Amino acid sequence: MKKKVIVAIDGPSSSGKSTIAKLVAKHFNFTYIDSGSIYRAITYLALKNNLVNTQSIDVVSLIDLLNNCSISFSFNSNNQNIIKIDDVSVDNEIRTFEISNNVSLIAEKNEIRKYVLKIQKDISKNKSVVMDGRDIGSVVFPNADFKFFLDASLDVRSFRRWNELKLSEKDLKLEDVKKDLLKRDENDINRKFSPLIRCKDSILIDSDHLDVNEVVGQIIDIIDAEFKNKY
Predict the structure, then answer these.
(1) What is the mean pLDDT of residues 102-122?
(2) Are 14 and 178 contacting, i.e. CB atoms less than 8 angstroms apart?
(3) Given a cut of 90, is residue 55 above it in pLDDT?
(4) What angle do CA 220, 188, 124 make, to 5 degrees?
(5) pLDDT at site 184
(6) Which residues are paired to 33 by β-bridges?
(7) 62, 79, 105, 148: least surrounded by Cβ within 10 Å?
């Protein structure tokens, strides 16, 4: 392959983006970048510093905080990223229900999205990458070589998310997860800046009745077919 390749995978919360993107990146030996973890890390910082309440964020203080710390990635032996704040891994800390419940409030702020966009661009330089998120194909890499939009019904996504979280949060109810996802969907679709949309040139994959390997297989087949023609 003579050029760097960008694969954009977008979709709503808990549609399987991260799991799928990791496996696709591993197959092609590309770098996987979980853009959602950047927003989660920022949410973690905001909550830790009491900059979030039910309806609002102290954006000025949060930006000041971000300008005085470092959010970065290191890459493990599988070429996958581990997110760090000031060189300390926060991978486990950002995967809680509390973070999930507040991250869309953070992500809707234009100042935050601009900050994250710079990180996304910087860590993708001179690499073939698979990046997942909400606006990768529409904003971050509008000229990506491949664009996929993963979707699934609210019920299916809620069950998947609950099944993932219940191991560490035993009192968590499926209905609470469903309410949270519905709220996040509404925020993601209706936010003013970089809303969740399906690009016209993206390939839609509905995973309601597909397992992980079937979705990964579809994406790999599509990329492989294009590689034979172009790369």
Answers:
(1) 91
(2) no
(3) no
(4) 45
(5) 87
(6) 131
(7) 79
- DSSP-derived letter for residue 85 is E
Residue found under tokens 């077919």: 225
Look at residue 74 in the predicted model and tell me its pLDDT.
82
212: confidence class by pLDDT, cuts 50, 70, 90: very high
Q: What pLDDT is stored for residue 1 in this prediction? A: 52
How far apart, in whole angstroms, are the C-alpha atoms of residue 176 and residue 166? 12
Is the pLDDT higher at 127 or at 75?
Answer: 127
| Residue 28 one-letter amino acid | F
What is the CATH number assigned to the segment(s) 6-221?
Answer: 3.40.50.300
C-alpha–C-alpha distance, residues 210 and 214, integer Å: 6
Residue 102: CA count within 13 A, CB half-sphere: 23
Closest CA to 14 of 165, 117, 175, 201: 165
Using DSSP's 3-state secondary structure scheme, residue 162 falls into helix
Q: Could you tell me if 90 and 41 are in contact, meaning their C-beta atoms sit under 8 angstroms apart?
A: yes
- Residues in contact with 127: Cβ distance below 8 Å, sequence separation at least 6, in sequence order: 4, 30, 31
pLDDT in tens, 33-49: 999 999 999 999 999 99
Q: Which one, of 186, 104, 100, 185, lies nearest residue 151 by Cα?
A: 185
DSSP one-letter code for 134: S
Residue 85 CB contacts under 8 Å (≥ 6 apart), including other chains: 41, 44, 45, 69, 70, 71
Tokens for 214?
């079937």
Query: Do 24 and 7 form a contact (C-beta atoms < 8 A)?
Result: yes
pLDDT class of 230 with cuts at 50, 70, 90: low
* pLDDT at residue 101, as a whole number: 84
